[in-house]
Design a protein that fits this description.
UCP037692; YheE
């Protein structure tokens, strides 16, 4: 389960889509960029390949809720 999920716009002009996201998973902090097309660009610590599909699905749900369903 994701904990302490945070997001903020990548650009000062918030009309340009793209968000920096961070969260904890299994006591490890992860940072990524969430692009407008839903792709996730992992930064310093990507999760294990077998865990990515589940995490990405959770991230998509959170972004839909927080960003797109305002």
């Amino acid at each position: 389960m994701l904990q302490h999920f945070q997001y903020k716009p990548l650009f000062t002009n918030t009309e340009i889509p793209g968000w920096h996201i961070s969260f904890y998973y299994k006591k490890q902090k992860h940072n990524a960029i969430y692009h407008q097309n839903g792709s996730i660009e992992w930064k310093d610590s990507a999760p294990a390949e077998k865990e990515k599909p589940q995490l990405e699905a959770q991230i998509h749900e959170l972004m839909l809720y927080h960003v797109y369903d305002k």
